[in-house]
Design a protein that fits this description.
Glutaredoxin; five-stranded mixed β-sheet; 2 domains; 5 strands; 160 residues; alpha+beta; binds FE2/S2 (inorganic) cluster
């Protein structure tokens, strides 16, 4: 089984990238949503701290624009990194395998609302490619043979 790096996503790289730019808060929020499929509250709290912005200001932005989601588009969000390193190490095959196993296309939620599958740009740990982020947990060096296992473990957590 691949290594789980952390259950709390590290957004310091995103913050560093946008901090001194114009519209930094909104750009950081865009990147976060693109990575996770929505903006988790735990990430908003981190962002408020790292950018020194009141949490209320972040929620003002999040609720003003329809684009942002505060809840996951499926109970489980599977994000396959399609950045260059992951792409070269087989990410397209992972997207295909998840899509086939779940019976959806990339960018769709399963009819039962259990899984949302998306491809995302580089999540910042290219040395661990190919990377899949499952409900905010980064999984490294994922192989197609693990796809069923990853889906099953999400379902098991559901049952507990
Ligand atoms: S390309 Fe996938 S983590 Fe950078």
């Amino acid at each position: 089984m691949s290594e789980q790096l952390s259950s709390a996503p590290d957004i310091s790289r995103t913050v560093k990238k946008w901090l001194k730019k114009r519209g930094s808060l909104i750009m950081a929020l865009h990147e976060i949503q693109n990575t996770f499929g929505y903006v988790p509250r735990s990430v908003s709290l981190q962002l408020a701290h790292l950018m020194d912005v009141p949490l209320a200001r972040i929620y003002e932005v999040l609720t003003f624009y329809n684009y942002f989601r505060l809840d996951p588009p499926g109970k489980n969000t599977i994000s396959v990194c399609m950045g260059t390193a992951c792409y070269l190490k087989g990410a397209p095959k992972l997207v295909e395998a998840f899509a086939e196993e779940l019976g959806v296309q990339e960018g769709e939620t399963t009819p039962d609302g259990q899984f949302f599958l998306q491809s995302v740009r580089c999540v910042g740990c290219c040395g661990l490619a190919p990377v899949v982020v499952v409900n905010g947990t980064v999984m490294s060096k994922v192989d197609v043979s693990q796809v069923k296992e990853i889906i099953a473990s999400c379902m098991q957590k559901e049952e507990v």
